[in-house]
Amino acid sequence: MNVRTHHLRCTECGTVITGDAVNSIFRCPQCNGLYDVIYPWSEAVARPAAGPEHNLPNPSALRWLWQERRTSTLPVDQSGVWRFRDLLPIVSAPENVVTLREGNTPLYDMPRCAKAAGVDWLLAKHQGMNPTGSFKDTGMTAALSVAADRGFEWVACASTGNTSAAMAAYAARAGLRSIVFIPEGKIAWGKLSQSMDYGALTIQLKTDFDGCVRILTELVTRFPIYLLNSVNPYRLEGQKTPAFEMMEQLDWQVPDHIIVPGGNLANSSALGKGFMEMRHLGMIPRAPKVSVIQAEGANPLYRWFTDSNRLMRPMTAETRATAIRIGNPASWRKAANVIDALGGWCEQVSEQEIALAKAQIGAEGVGCEPASAVTYAGLKKLVALGKVQREERVVLVLTGHTLKDSNYTIDYHRGELLTEAENAQISPADLALHAGLRKPPVVLEPDTDTVMRTLESHMKQAQPA
Ligand code: F0G
Questions:
Q1: Using an 8 Å Cβ cutoff, are 227 and 359 in contact?
Q2: Is 232 a pocket residue for ligand 1 (Cβ < 6 Å)?
């Protein structure tokens, strides 16, 4: 690894170490804090160490170079992460990069969702359109390339399903061996199948995600296994690049607000880091607000945010959005710092609100997994609370593909997702929306008249707005 290009700085006590001096659990031995990757041009060290301003990368040159690389046939240039490698020089040579051509994900306009939420302009950056179907690929290409660069044979992660799918795929590409720890029975089948398909050793533990993290953290101190959970700061370097890509896609016009789901709370901080780095380099004049949305049953950051003493209390998490079923988020302080620095909010949304939001995103022809839908449910709440104004330009970060959790979708449309007690709490206005959105499959006898009668009755029904 090229230790000269970057350092690691403890986000709690500020201690700076070289990249190869970090321990196997990626925590500061002095204060247990997590690290950020910093560069000679980073904000945190710009004044004491970077020297004259002309050491900063040149914004126009970078924009031109990044655009130019899109036409190249080199794998590192085709990757929507490594195309931006000037701002993440973490591997010693481009040949060591492990890529599945991640990134380059679409930014969709969402006119019907915008109208229903009461905003003029709404976009969705669909990170589910990555090679393994989630945003984790952008982080995994970065951290797994570092693992390969440093000569590790084994890599491991604890996961609610998407990290493990991404890690298994990238490890397989690199010829490394991977171990996945997942909570038994608590992840979507599609994700479980991916880690098997890509050849990982898949261990289902009879505990939750937080319990899996505890076991793995002990293991990596005893075996030469490279930890690929998001405490690994190189993951976040990859996950900051969608911020760069979003700005390219918006012609460098900064949106007002980015809304991200919150689980282990690394992604919100990674995107925040990306925006703050661009602002520091003069590529954008200001950064957008970053708001984090959690499920009501897995809401430790929301509780911290609304607690007058600002205490973080880990909890036992429960939500059908299994990707974010996390009660003791490792990166909560990083996410909190980003919300504070950029002026966003933290909100919570109910199971009913998640289900409705997911159906609305699906009906827009976009689709996403339940954990991603919290962003839209959260936006509606922020608008209702007056925290997002109609004219604000909002981007939802959709983190996972709809096919990741098709059981959830099928249960929803068959009316089998929510309990009677949950259904009873839905407002009449939302009940009407659900009724218009639910599309259970129709089972018919193979008889033309029967099919025609059914079609006629459907054609008479008005299409929901
Ligand atoms: N959305 C999806 C689809 C996820 O899989 C996750 C996290 C998140 C949002 C939350 O991101 O943890 O950075 O706040 N999934 C992890 C996993 C925990 O193991 O796949 P975060």
A1: no
A2: no
Residue whose CB lies within 8 A of the most ligand 1 atoms, among 195, 240, 324, for a mutation test: 324
E strand map for 303-448:
346-349, 393-398
Q: Which two tokens stand for residue 380?
A: 């509606």
Q: Which of 219, 138, 224, 142 is nearest to 177 (CA)?
A: 224
Q: Would you say the CB of residue 349 lies under 6 angstroms from ligand 1?
A: no
Task: State the average pLDDT for the chain.
Answer: 95
In 3D space, the residue among 329, 297, 325 whose CA is nearest the CA of residue 313 turns out to be 329
Residue type (1 letter), 284: I
**Cβ–Cβ < 8 Å for 290, 271:** yes
Provide the residue count of the chain.
Answer: 465
Contact partners, residue 298, CB within 8 Å, separation at least 6: 263, 315, 317, 318, 319, 321, 324, 325, 326, 327
**How do beta strands 35-38 and 7-10 pair?**
antiparallel
pLDDT of residue 464: 63
Asked whether the predicted pLDDT for residue 260 surpasses 80, the reply is: yes
Q: Is 428 helix (H, G, I), strand (E, B) or coil?
A: helix
